[in-house]
Amino acid sequence: MPQSRWYPTRDRLGSPAQLAEAFRVLLDQHYALQDRHDALLAKVNAPSSKTAEPPPGSGPTDTMLCGLRVEPVDSRTLANGAVLTWVAKDGRFKFL
């Protein structure tokens, strides 16, 4: 479909044959626009091929405490009396 707009002139609508040709051009443009719209809707509404992942900030590597990162830890191996310490070079907390 051409990207330019088409407006019929008075002399292009003079006879019934010219009028039919003008409507054919008009309907071709209309249906091409509808097809582009339908293709865009299908693309937008297509199911995502990505696997469902947890939202950012909710995974085990994204653990946060008061907005500060905490190094992931296996709670089964966490001993009583473990101390949560700040590791400045990594910018996160770590259980020791």
What attributes characterize this protein structure?
alpha+beta, two-stranded antiparallel sheet
Question: Which SSEs are present, and which pair or pack?
Answer:
Blueprint (H helix, E strand, L loop, with lengths): L15 H30 L18 E2 L2 E2 L14 E4 L4 E4 L1
Antiparallel strand pairs: 1-2, 3-4
Strand arrangement in the largest pleated sheet: 1-2
Number of strands: 4
Helix content: 25-40%
Give the overall pLDDT as a whole number.
79
The tally of structural domains comes to: 2
Brief synopsis:
The chain has 96 residues and is α+β, with helices and mostly antiparallel strands.
What does this molecule look like?
The protein is α+β, with helices and mostly antiparallel strands and 96 residues long. It folds into two domains: 10-45; 60-95, no CATH class. The chain has one helix spanning 16-45, and strands spanning 64-65, 68-69, 84-87, 92-95. The strands form two sheets. A two-stranded antiparallel ribbon has the order 1-2.
